[in-house]
């Protein structure tokens, strides 16, 4: 620890560089290990605050989830709560918690980044990976600047309320973090590792997680499939809320999987069962390569298979046999089937192809007629950016004689995955249940 005077001098120096405005952070990822006990705050150690101990613990745990996924797109958008108030930030217990649960886990970040680089062959790819450090640093720069500023203001607020804070100091490692990330500058969104956690907010040791390597840009390498979108977060939480949707299915196919978060979550939910086969599909070669890397990052190669699936096969009579061959190769006759898709209804020109593909995949096999099994089911989640695009897709489904039903999305609240916040246009998410007649 350092003296209060030195801490204030360093904080003022930092402020002179940063007070011109909170830079926009970039949506990137930093893995995070939550296996530490949450600090139990005693009422007598929280002078000048109105929060109950359990409330503060819950808020910090939720902040940890956001820090792990570097979400929202800039920490300036993280509301308070869950972000601690200035008075709460100034408490030694809060600062120690942040240091122990966030800063002291940076070694996990470096190990994963090295692993990504070690599996990369081309020099240009290595240069792209370096952007991850700069992009993540920019996000953390804004985060720790907000923390340090809040602590100083918290001291002033508590002192004005009659609390003696003369012997209290800003945690040295927090100040060091602010200085460490000070050189970070805004730049193009880079490649990043994100870790998504879910589980009881009061029991961090029980949290499960998946890691994805993503791009920060909405469109990268000519595709939107290299980052996670809001509807994918929503559908993932829907499955987490009701794991039986996954565990009761012999085969699970994700359409337009992108970086694969939905398939990875489904695999984690179904790890106790060896009967389910998850197939993550996309059409773009670059996306498929990223998808395979993310499956490997999570050691889920035995549960998740990656396969190319072109929706155009279904609407093109000459290519329809290719889809039928794909179906016979990957889906066993008579198997119960769940089809998933998140934020894949965004291009009206693809609506016919998508609906036709769903019609083929939802057809029951002749071998299943004598077997009592649930009908094949599709769950498609979509962020509504253009109502006419959504209506067009529903019309195409009806033309294919598919039955659609709007169903409520189950939310996990604080216990679920966080991510996808802070992007313009990320509004209402709708979920539909689609079956064949």
Please describe the structure with a list of short key phrases separated by commas or semicolons.
437 residues, 9 strands, 15 helices, seven-stranded mixed sheet, alpha/beta
Notes on the structure:
The chain has 437 residues and is α/β, with parallel strands linked by helices. The chain is built from 15 helices and 9 strands.
Task: Sum this structure up briefly.
This protein has 437 residues and is an alpha/beta fold.
Largest sheet: 7 strands, mixed
Helix-strand category: alpha/beta
Q: Tell me the distance between the termini.
A: 69 Å
Rg measurement, Å: 24 Å
Give the averaged pLDDT, no decimals.
78
| β-strand amount | 5-15%
Number of strand elements:
9
* Helical content class: 40-55%
Number of helices: 15
Tell me the series of helices and strands, N- to C-terminal. Answer: HHHHHHHEEHHEHEHEHHEHEHEE
Q: Give the overall shape, derived from the CA principal axes.
A: elongated
Strand order of the largest sheet: 5-4-3-6-7-9-8
Q: Give the uncertain stretches in residue-range form.
A: 1-53, 120-132
SSE diagram, text form:
Elements lengths: L3 H15 L34 H17 L16 H4 L2 H10 L4 H13 L4 H38 L11 H10 L9 E8 L9 E8 L14 H12 L2 H4 L3 E5 L5 H9 L7 E6 L2 H13 L6 E5 L3 H4 L4 H11 L6 E6 L8 H11 L15 E7 L3 H13 L3 E5 L21 E7 L2
Parallel strand pairs: 3-4, 3-6, 4-5, 6-7
Antiparallel strand pairs: 1-2, 7-9, 8-9
Helix pairs in contact: 1-6, 1-7, 6-7, 8-10, 14-15
